[in-house]
Amino acid sequence: MMIETFYRTDNFEVRSTYEEVLSAYQLWFRLTNQLCNDEGFEGFTAHDFCVPDLFLRSVECHIQRVSGFRQFKEQCLISPDNTIPFALRTDHEHGSALFNRFNDISKSALTSLGIDPIRFGNPPFGFAKAVFSILNIHHEAKLNGLVGYSQLWALENQFDEILFVCSLPVAGCGRIPFYEAPAIPPYWLPITGTEAIDLFNTHNTKMRKRE
Fold this sequence. Notes:
Strand order of the largest sheet: 8-9-1-10
Radius of gyration: 20 Å
Distance between the termini: 40 Å
Number of helices: 5
């Protein structure tokens, strides 16, 4: 069995790192989205800091053949309504050249943070992994083919202060599962799942009031 352990902190180093990664992410997203727009797409789906998986065009666009891309015949589950998803064709000269340009944007963003793009890989929780990699607290757990990843959230508390909550996966070992909490810097304070939910509820309530 795999469980999540939760922690919170208002440490300045964590906040500074988060802001640095956020700035790099925003630049990566803007450059990637601009290149998509240049190719006639209105959006994309991708793991953070990675080459896009899908490129999206409106169903209202009459020209659906795009050089270097392959159109999906059916609507993908992860693509928004009223869009047609495409994938890059790396076996096509133009598609291969575009892949390299998208890849260069991703590599540039990661290397600006001091992160090795090869070690970073193609993670589903890329933003959090980038923060944790810089702080040297990235953690993964594997059990029966399942992989758990570290996750991170920036939240506002009731005093309008920014704090951070992270979850780290822990896989149990033994017939009667024994869980050993991962090593983590002392400024991360352990909290219960209920306390984490309370922090999320407080944050979400504040966000709704601002809408």
